[in-house]
């Protein structure tokens, strides 16, 4: 049976020693803690060898006495040594206010951190793209492993359900392009060239670009949220356990569906944009629809259509890969789902715009302008 906490002063080799014994816990301490605080007898070191039990309160009292008198401690073994070590590590000054830094240093530090994070994300995205290509090669060797039902199901979510919002957005953009173009060209008496602006700008750039942005915000975010939720629920780990590849079951169907549907959505958006611009030209500029269509046939080259259709599947692949990649990065808690969903949309739109600039330079260099 353990005894209550006690202390005494002994003479050892002519030197006073404070000896602690018994149960140095909150329940067994009694008034020993207060007595030790008021103790004014000098001692050279503290002996803990006779302590039977100790808790954090007892360790804190011993640490405080040692720190106040600046004397060594002996006999601290086992639980006593471990608790004293934890108390010593915890007894550190707490910094309330951050260190003052020069503003430009803080800005440079934030830029450096953002750059490193961007490079890390790019490295992960390239690795994920490599994993997608490996899975694609595996599916090519074994076509029976391709999940056609999953791809068809994504056709509905990526394409069919997006027709309304893409159509409305494209129609309004066509009206805006026509109105702003007519306002500027009217100063030179060249309102008829508004048709040139609508036709070529829509088929080459805005039709597919705005569609890609809408798909990134709608489908790319959905991919990240769906896969992220499955990651948190450990469904992806369960799939790996039973021998199902998450890349083949979750990622490839989404990528294939987006690649296939982006040219169709882009062409649909271009047609609706031209209809919106033609309606404005008919009402405001009094250009008959037959004249509008004839002028379109004269100014819109077949290469303009090919430019949009070539860019569309590339944009679709980028959007789907970004969404699935960010979904696979979810870990920890539900807040990560929202963060990675936002990151997927931002990343996809950024990469789409960068690639669009690259395509513009490339097609101009080969004479498709």
Poorly predicted sequence stretches spanning 5 or more consecutive residues: none
Number of distinct beta strands: 4
Question: How far is the first residue's CA from the last residue's CA?
Answer: 95 Å
Widest β-sheet, arrangement of strands: 1-2-3-4
Count of spatially separate domains = 2
Count of DSSP H/I helices: 12
In short:
This protein has helices at residues 32-38, 56-69, 79-90, 103-141, 148-159, 163-186, 194-232, 235-241, 246-283, 289-299, 302-328, 335-365; strands spanning 6-12, 15-24, 45-54, 73-74. It is of the alpha/beta class and 369 residues long.
Produce the secondary structure layout:
Blueprint: E1 6-12, E2 15-24, H1 32-38, E3 45-54, H2 56-69, E4 73-74, H3 79-90, H4 103-141, H5 148-159, H6 163-186, H7 194-232, H8 235-241, H9 246-283, H10 289-299, H11 302-328, H12 335-365
Parallel strand pairs: 2-3, 3-4
Antiparallel strand pairs: 1-2
């Amino acid at each position: 049976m353990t005894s209550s906490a006690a202390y005494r002063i002994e003479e050892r080799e002519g030197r006073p020693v404070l000896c602690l014994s018994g149960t140095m816990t909150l329940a067994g301490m009694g008034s020993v803690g207060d007595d030790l605080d008021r103790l004014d007898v000098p001692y050279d070191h503290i002996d803990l060898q006779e302590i039977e039990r100790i808790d954090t309160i007892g360790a804190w009292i011993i640490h405080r006495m040692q720190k106040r008198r600046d004397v060594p401690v002996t006999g601290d073994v086992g639980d006593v040594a471990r608790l004293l070590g934890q108390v010593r590590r915890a007894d550190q000054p707490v910094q309330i206010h951050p260190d003052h830094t020069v503003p430009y240093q803080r800005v440079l530090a934030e830029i450096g951190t953002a750059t490193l994070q961007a490079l890390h994300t790019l490295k992960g995205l390239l690795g994920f793209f490599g994993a997608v290509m490996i899975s694609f090669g595996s599916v090519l060797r074994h076509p029976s492993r391709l999940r056609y039902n999953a791809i068809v199901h994504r056709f509905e979510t990526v394409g069919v359900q997006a027709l309304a919002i893409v159509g409305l957005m494209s129609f309004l953009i066509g009206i805006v392009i026509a109105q702003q173009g007519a306002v500027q060209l009217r100063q030179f008496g060249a309102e008829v060239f508004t048709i040139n602006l609508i036709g070529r700008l829509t088929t080459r750039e805005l039709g597919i670009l705005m569609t890609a942005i809408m798909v990134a915000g709608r489908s790319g975010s959905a991919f990240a949220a769906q896969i992220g939720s499955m990651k948190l629920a450990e469904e992806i780990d369960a799939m790996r356990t039973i021998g199902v590849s998450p890349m083949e079951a979750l990622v490839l169907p989404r990528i294939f569906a987006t690649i296939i549907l982006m040219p169709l959505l882009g062409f649909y958006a271009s047609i609706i944009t031209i209809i919106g611009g033609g309606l404005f030209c008919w009402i405001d500029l009094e250009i008959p629809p037959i004249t509008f269509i004839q002028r379109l046939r004269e100014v819109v080259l077949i290469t303009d259509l090919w430019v949009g259709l070539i860019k569309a599947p590339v944009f679709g692949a980028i959007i789907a890969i970004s969404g699935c990649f960010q979904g696979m990065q979810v870990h920890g808690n539900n807040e990560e789902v929202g963060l990675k969903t936002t990151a997927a949309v931002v990343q996809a739109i950024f990469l789409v715009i960068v690639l669009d600039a690259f395509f513009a330079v490339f097609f101009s260099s080969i004479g498709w302008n």
